[in-house]
């Protein structure tokens, strides 16, 4: 437990233990002979409102697979938010495509639809909205943009398990989506991921590609497509089935706590919490994010260190992707850092002064939420 008694993460109980024993004793630890991965895929697809789900090794591979099914390959372009974890862009770049950063909405920190439209060119093959911290990107405008331009969407839902937009779950929004089960995520097996698909054809292609191009019933090594080994093992799936069983209860708790924390943070002079689009009627709150404009760079970093020393699980936010060396190694657009920063002022500002608190903060009691806000206020005053 931390100094102020916040809940720990990951959370587990006898359900995970029983699932691991069940996977162990079934005698097949590989998805092709066992039953845990298949069962998890059915349960997760149902939970997310998707026609099909495919469990994979991690969220980065889920993104790469989703893009590949959409036909993304060498020479293509994928529009991605300038502010996101680097996997969003690297999934495209690993396929030989160019990742084109577009700016974010200054309130929700999600991909701005107008900026995405401006980034579309003749080689654009996909648009990747990232549901930042569980806040859903403007899927009404992005969906219309996709329909009007003919460029499909690939949702990065690594933070959005159980989210809803106008009553629709991520899997009901009409496009492929990718999820992560890395240890910090809303449900976890340490690593793992999933992709959901709106139709059988794309799911079947993804299955082939995630299993080295080999059909389920193949005994003669007749690989039908290129691919890689993105298969999830039975133990991870058993843990994830248990994690899924408590996800909704945890989201309910975060939804109750988040308004209070947001209000308390907003009352602190100089602090601006992440906003919420009213159409996002269920937000799982992967992070509690806020900005401290004017407290940037090393001062922001020192503030985060101070919060951690006081028992608050705080982190600096992601860098704008174009402000990392990794972005420029391969598949970068023909532009300079300064040119991209000028196109993406909201992402650039958030990179400098943004902070996020781990979602376990929102599993705390109301009293603890108030204590967290008091610590943030004191630390900001001292910064």
Protein architecture, described:
There is one protein chain. The protein has 383 residues and is of the alpha/beta class. 39% of the residues lie in helices and 13% in strands. It has twelve helices and 13 strands. Strand 6 and strand 7 (168-169) form a beta hairpin.
Q: Brief description of this entry?
A:
With 383 residues, this protein is α/β, with parallel strands linked by helices. The protein is 39% helix and 13% strand.
Record keyword descriptors for this entry.
383 residues; four-stranded antiparallel sheet; DegT/StrS_aminotransferase; four-stranded mixed sheet; globular; single chain; 12 helices; alpha/beta
Provide the fold topology.
Elements: H1 14-25, H2 36-48, E1 52-56, H3 59-69, E2 77-81, H4 87-94, E3 98-102, H5 113-119, E4 124-127, H6 139-149, E5 154-156, E6 164-165, E7 168-169, E8 176-180, E9 193-197, H7 200-210, H8 234-266, E10 272-273, E11 287-291, H9 298-309, E12 314-316, H10 337-343, H11 345-353, E13 354-358, H12 366-382
Parallel strand pairs: 2-3, 2-4, 5-8
Antiparallel strand pairs: 1-9, 6-7, 8-9, 10-11, 11-13, 12-13
Family: Belongs to the DegT/DnrJ/EryC1 family.
Pfam families: DegT_DnrJ_EryC1
Cofactor: pyridoxal 5'-phosphate
**pLDDT < 50 runs, ≥5 residues:** none
Report the span from N to C terminus: 26 Å
CA-based gyration radius: 21 Å
SSE run: HHEHEHEHEHEEEEEHHEEHEHHEH
Helix content: 25-40%
How many strand units? Answer: 13
What would the average pLDDT be, to the nearest integer?
A: 97
Quaternary: single chain
How much beta, percentage-wise? 5-15%
- Biggest beta sheet summary: 4 strands, mixed
What is the approximate shape? globular
Spatial sequence of strands, sheet with the most strands: 1-9-8-5
């Amino acid at each position: 437990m931390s100094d102020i008694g916040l809940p720990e993460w990951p959370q587990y109980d006898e359900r995970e233990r029983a699932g691991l024993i069940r996977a162990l004793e079934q005698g097949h630890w590989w998805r092709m002979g066992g039953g845990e991965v298949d069962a998890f895929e059915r349960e997760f697809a149902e939970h997310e409102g998707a026609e099909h789900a495919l469990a994979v090794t991690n969220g980065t591979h889920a993104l790469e697979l989703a893009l590949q099914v959409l036909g993304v390959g060498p020479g293509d372009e994928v529009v991605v938010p300038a502010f996101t974890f680097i996997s969003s862009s690297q999934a495209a770049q690993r396929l030989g495509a160019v990742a084109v950063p577009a700016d974010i909405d200054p309130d929700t920190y999600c991909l701005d639809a107008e900026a995405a439209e401006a980034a579309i060119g003749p080689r654009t093959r996909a648009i990747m909205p990232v549901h930042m911290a569980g806040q859903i990107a403007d899927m009404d405008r992005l969906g219309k943009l996709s329909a009007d331009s003919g460029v499909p969407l690939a949702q990065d839902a690594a933070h959005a398990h159980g989210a809803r937009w106008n009553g629709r779950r991520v899997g009901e929004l009409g496009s492929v989506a990718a999820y992560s089960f890395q240890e910090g995520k809303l449900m976890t097996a340490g690593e793992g991921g999933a992709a959901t698909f709106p139709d059988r054809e794309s799911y079947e292609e993804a299955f082939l590609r995630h299993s080295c191009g080999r059909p389920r019933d193949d005994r003669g090594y007749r690989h039908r497509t290129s691919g890689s080994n993105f298969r999830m093992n039975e133990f991870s799936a058993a843990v994830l089935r248990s994690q899924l069983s408590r996800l909704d209860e945890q989201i309910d708790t975060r939804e109750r706590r988040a308004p209070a924390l947001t209000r308390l943070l907003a009352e602190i002079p100089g602090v601006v919490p992440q906003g919420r689009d009213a159409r996002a009627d269920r937000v799982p709150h992967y992070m509690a994010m806020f900005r401290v404009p004017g407290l940037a760079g090393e001062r922001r970093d020192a503030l985060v260190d101070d919060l951690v020393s006081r028992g608050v699980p705080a982190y600096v936010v992601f860098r704008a992707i174009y402000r990392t060396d990794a972005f420029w190694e391969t598949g970068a657009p023909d532009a300079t850092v300064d040119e991209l920063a000028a196109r993406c002022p909201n992402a650039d500002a958030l990179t400098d002064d943004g902070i996020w608190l781990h979602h376990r903060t929102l599993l705390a009691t109301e009293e603890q939420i108030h204590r967290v806000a008091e610590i943030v206020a004191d630390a900001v005053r001292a910064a």
